[in-house]
Amino acid sequence: MASGIVNIRRDVDDKFYRYRMPVLTTKIEGKGNGIKTVIPNMSDVARALSRPPTYTTKFFGCELGAQTTFDEKNDRYIVNGAHDANRLRELLDVFIEKFVLCKSCKNPETELVILKSGRVENIIRDCKACGERTDVDMRHKLTTFIVKNPPVKIKKGKNKNTGGDAAGGVGGAGNPDPVADGAESPKDESDDYLTKKIKAEAAELNTETTLAKEDWPADTSPEAVKQRVKALEGSLAATVLGDDDGSDDDASSPYSVLGRWIEENPDADTKARSIAIYKKAEELGIEKKHKTVTILVQALFTENIVTEINSYAALLTKLVTSEKHQKALLGGVERFLGFTHPDLIPTVPKILMAFYQIDLIDEEVVTQWGTHVSKKYVDKDTSKKVRKASEPFLKWLQEADDDDDDDE
Ligand SMILES: [Zn+2]
Question: Cα(102) to centroid of ligand 1, in Å?
Fold first, then answer.
């Protein structure tokens, strides 16, 4: 059975594409006339698209000429009849094309807006990436449903008491999952055990930094100066292209180029590889960009990430130069875990500890990160899982901090 995470645009074959969604799954229930197709993860998929799950389900119904039922309270979305999962996935692609992607730039970060002029209603895709407002084909039957059940603005970030449930129809906001509130903690015992384990492991980590300053691409040789000019031009070009948000989706962006290059140029000699990676980033004009750090984490690390963090400590230190870079680093970890290594999510505390031990992340940054679920890098569920798993480390950090206070 196919499971996991795919690009929202399945035609984009790029693992550095940042817009992802869970693979839609189906379950056939009932028999004979009562046979139906249940879509157990409809709300997760819809959330990744920032659309209510009722829209996607209804869309399937329209396309297949089938009745649909939704029970939002119990999170049940059903299409009557037996339908093949692959067929529904293809239809989902069509839905995304028609009702999600910006017509102009193909970015999925859009919002549906209903515009009324007189008695005529039009549905517009309002694009957050390029600012264009492009229309939806009003001949599609789903538009009637959308107009009758207008989209409710999904609030981002903190949704304490936003009254999301009253919205009726929007799957996004009022998610009842308890997240890292600190209040409920039935597993305190195991947490303590984990904390101890982390402490012990942290003590064993050696944090030698193997690259000396002079190993990095030098500052003064004519060759280096030329490189620098080239890099400057590169970053200027990148600035003109407005690289600071969104354009890492493109397979030809310098970030994707760097990511693929790192993957295609393995080298057992981590020192040589570190320098080569840095040079490549410089050549692309992105060695100072925070996004470069995100891509690096995704492309460089393997299941041995904890030891690799130490091997590449010098490179990481060279690239992570601000709070923004630290956040990009943590975002890279989220993607690394969410996209390719969900099996490693339980090791998040060790990963964070390894970063902490080489002074790459500040306490405030990681604490802020760990206590705020964000959809910036991965879908909300992955974001939650990663943060939940990081709790023992954050707790340890907090305790270490309290100890410090006692000393003073
Ligand atoms: Zn757009």
Answer: 5
Percent above pLDDT 70 for the chain: 74
The 3-class SS string of the chain reads CCCCEEECCCCCCCCCCCCEEECCCCEEECCHHHCEEECCCHHHHHHHCCCCHHHHHHHHHHHHCCCEEEECCCCEEEEECCCCHHHHHHHHHHHHHHHHCCCCCCCCCEEEEEEEECCEEEEEEEECCCCCEEECCCCCCHHHHHHHCCCCCCCCCCCCCCCHHHHCCCCCCCCCCCCCCCCCCCCHHHHHHHHHHHHHHHHHCCCCCCCCHHHCCCCCCHHHHHHHHHHHHHHHHHHHCCCCCCHHHCCCCHHHHHHHHHHHCCCCCHHHHHHHHHHHHHHCCCCCCHHHHHHHHHHHCCCCHHHHHHHCHHHHHHHCCCHHHHHHHHHHHHHHHHHHCHHHHHHHHHHHHHHHHCCCCCHHHHHHHHCCCCCCCCCHHHHHHHHHHHHHHHHHHHHHHHHHHHHC
- CA–centroid distance, 60 to ligand 1, in Å, is 25
Between the CA of 240 and the centroid of ligand 1 the distance, in Å, is 17
> Average of pLDDT values for 78-89?
96
Domain regions of the chain by residue span: 5-156, 188-407
- Measured in Å, residue 12 CA sits from the centre of ligand 1 at 16
Rounded CA gap, 81 and 35, in Å?
Answer: 5
36 Cα–ligand 1 center, Å: 37
Distance 133 CA to ligand 1 centre (A): 8
Cβ atoms of 247 and 109 within 8 Å: the answer is no
State pLDDT tens for residues 317-327.
Answer: 999 999 999 99
The fold of 5-156 is Defensin A-like (3.30.30)
pLDDT in tens, 153-172: 654 443 334 333 333 333 33
First and final CA of the chain: distance in angstroms?
57
Rounded to whole angstroms, the Cα distance separating 282 from 254 reads 11
Decide if domain 188-407 falls under CATH 1.25.40.180: yes
